[in-house]
Amino acid sequence: MRYIRYAFWALLAIVLIALALANRAPVTLQLLPADLALLVGFSLSFTVPVFVLFFGGIIMGLLVGFVWEWMRESKQRSEARKNSRENTHLKREVDRLKVDKAKQEGDEVLALLDGPRRA
After folding, report:
1. What residue ranges do the domains of the chain occupy?
2. Which of 5, 55, 52 lies closest to 29 in space, CA to CA?
3. What is the pTM of this model?
4. Are 109 and 99 spatial neighbours (Cβ–Cβ below 8 Å)?
5. CB of 45 within 8 A of CB of 31?
6. Measuring CA to CA, which of 20, 54, 59, 101 is 20 to 30 A from 82?
7. Which residues contact 50 (CB under 8 A, 6 or more apart)?
8. What is the pLDDT, as a whole number, of residue 85?
9. Geometric angle at alpha carbon 100, from 95 and 104, rounded to 5°
10. DSSP string spanning 59-105?
11. Is 26:49 a contact under the CB 8 Å cutoff?
């Protein structure tokens, strides 16, 4: 399985390098359209190779997707934290009840053995 993963990454690298080499022509990227730039009085433009725009778009898409997914899963993360706290509380309560039961029965050895365990 490891070799298949390495082969996939190598193939992806070859494709991306071929894409970059085939699209080296410079293009001008403008922040605002020309008419709006005149109205605002601010114009910013860059001259970069086309493959930089391709790769930049891919990276921006991944970042937006990661942030979107992180925000979407916030409800599940908070529910998991709540369940974890409740689980810890219930384990402590069960340990305390075991000790109380052993003390009521009068067996101190069992009370010590069944006492709260800390890992």
Report:
1. 25-72, 83-113
2. 52
3. 0.62
4. no
5. yes
6. 101
7. 23, 24, 25, 26, 27
8. 97
9. 150
10. HHHHHHHHHHHHHHTHHHHHHHHHHHHHHHHHHHHHHHHHHHHHHHH
11. yes
Which residue is listed with tokens 């000790």? 99
Which residue from 57, 48, 60, 58 is spatially nearest to 23, judged by alpha carbons?
48
Measured between alpha carbons, how far is 57 from 65 in angstroms, rounded to an integer? 12
What single string gives the DSSP state of each residue in 5-63?
HHHHHHHHHHHHHHHHHHT--EEEEESS-HHHHHHHT---EEEEEHHHHHHHHHHHHHH
State the Cα angle at 19 between 12 and 69, rounded to 5°: 55
Q: Which residue(s) pair with 49 in the sheet?
A: 26
Cα torsion 67, 70, 72, 78: sign: negative
Tokens 């942030």 belong to residue: 67
The amino acid at 8: F
